[in-house]
What we know:
Blueprint: H1 3-10, H2 16-29, E1 33-38, E2 44-49, H3 54-59, H4 63-72, E3 75-80, H5 85-93, E4 98-105, E5 111-117, H6 122-126, H7 131-144, E6 146-151
Parallel strand pairs: 2-3, 5-6
Antiparallel strand pairs: 1-2, 4-5
Amino acid sequence: MSKADDASSLRTRLTGEEMKYISLFEGMTAATALDCVLEKEGEAVIFILAPGENAKLRAAQGATVRKLMQMLRRRVVAIEYSQDPAQFIRNSFHPARLLDVKLLERGDGKKTVTVTAAAEDKGRAIGRGGRVAQRTRFLAKRYFQIEDIRIL
């Protein structure tokens, strides 16, 4: 599947500010961003990367991303997109180690996910103030219509 196919499958509308951030991000990192989400209160800018693009960020050893954070005065979070909801959720919780991700579809059509994190990584999966868990819930609903994610 091409990156254009991945981008069209996300079906999101971008604001002018989000398009500006994507342009800056792609220009600085050479990684392809499919989407950009601005967290409330200026906390972070979340970039959804095309599959395989995360390696470009690791190659720079984070120096480019740190420079971008200084320019934007926000945290920068990069999550690699996957059409497989379980893999996307794993990517969103990275670097926390997840032992299991189970997608359940109830009789009424609502989807939920149960994530089992390694005991030593449960705090990392939840994040300070629940940020990582909230972000993952928001993104899972945005892309896969998943109603809730429970972390065990």
